[in-house]
């Protein structure tokens, strides 16, 4: 999924997130390092684990050797195979990163993945989910506005202060047709997080996708 990752997976989080607060990152469903290679190059203090299915590992190692040989030489990258439906990722990392993973799956599978990640998390761990957050078209329910102490974002802003757009609805249909997955409202993300014992600490709007920064509840 290099193509989709490059088109949707905004790398502006490399500048927006306080990476200086963390030392270890586990990229879950990392593919060949589409996100974590730029992360390693931008923030050279980080130790990164590239986790994906066993069959992806050889290609991932080749890509890192080609694109980021310094990270291998400095032993800043590990490759650990993982089936995220069957096991937890490497335990106790500062950050767990899921980019363009959860929207591929319906709620039951999404919860299995998130429960496995939660098992690996230490009290200080953060789970960053980079995915789309669809704007809620229902003006009677606007959690983003309620967080600010008002009932609804004032017009002409969209509910949720315009955090949705038509592109996301197209993606929602695509995920349903191709994967039986879906894009989710902030309410949906909050419900998934709550169901696995996590809470939404902060949301970073990257323009296309967003990052949900989840912590232990
Ligand atoms: C849409 S791609 C996202 C890749 C990467 N996170 C990115 O943003 O470019 C989904 C990734 O999930 C991985 N994946 C699918 N099923 C998996 C499983 N059961 N366990 C671990 N990884 C899996 C795929 O191999 C693929 O690399």
Question: What key phrases describe this protein's structure?
Answer:
Rossmann fold; two-stranded parallel ribbon; alpha/beta; binds S-adenosylmethionine; 217 residues; 35% helix
Explain what this protein looks like in three dimensions.
The chain has one domain (4-216): Vaccinia Virus protein VP39 (Rossmann fold, 3-Layer(aba) Sandwich). It has helices at 2-8, 13-16, 36-42, 57-67, 69-73, 107-120, 143-147, 166-179, 186-195; strands at 24-28, 47-52, 77-81, 95-99, 126-131, 133-134, 184-185, 198-205, 210-216. The two termini are 32 Å apart. The longest helix is centred in the middle third of the chain and has 14 residues, at 107-120. The mean pLDDT is 90. The strands form two sheets. A seven-stranded mixed β-sheet has the order 3-2-1-4-5-9-8, with helices on both faces. Strands 6-7 form a two-stranded parallel sheet. It is an alpha/beta fold and 217 residues long. Helix 3 links the parallel strand 1 (24-28) and strand 2. Helices cover 35% and strands 21% of the residues. Bound molecules: S-adenosylmethionine (SAM). S-adenosylmethionine is lined by residues 1, 5, 9, 29-31, 34-35, 52-53, 56, 82-85, 99-101, 104. Keywords: Methyltransferase, S-adenosyl-L-methionine, Transferase.
């Amino acid at each position: 999924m290099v193509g989709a990752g490059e088109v949707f997976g905004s790398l502006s989080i490399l500048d927006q997130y306080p990476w200086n607060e963390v030392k270890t990152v586990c990229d879950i469903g990392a593919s060949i390092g589409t996100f974590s290679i730029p992360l390693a190059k931008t923030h050279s203090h980080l130790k990164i684990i590239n986790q994906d299915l066993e069959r992806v590992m050889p290609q991932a190692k080749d890509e890192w050797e080609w694109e980021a040989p310094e990270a291998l030489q400095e032993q800043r990258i590990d490759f650990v195979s993982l089936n995220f439906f069957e096991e937890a990722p490497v335990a106790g990392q500062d950050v767990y990163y899921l980019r363009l993973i959860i929207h591929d799956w319906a709620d039951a599978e999404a919860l299995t993945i998130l429960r496995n990640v939660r098992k690996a998390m230490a009290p200080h761990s953060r789970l960053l989910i980079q995915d789309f957050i669809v704007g809620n078209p229902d003006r009677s329910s606007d959690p983003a506005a309620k967080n600010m102490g008002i009932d609804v974002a004032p017009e002409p802003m969209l509910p949720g202060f315009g955090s949705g757009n038509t592109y996301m609805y197209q993606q929602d249909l695509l995920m349903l047709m191709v994967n039986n997955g879906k894009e989710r409202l902030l309410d949906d993300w909050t419900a998934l997080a709550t169901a696995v014992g996590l809470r939404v600490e902060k949301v970073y709007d990257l323009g296309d996708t967003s990052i949900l920064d989840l912590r232990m509840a």
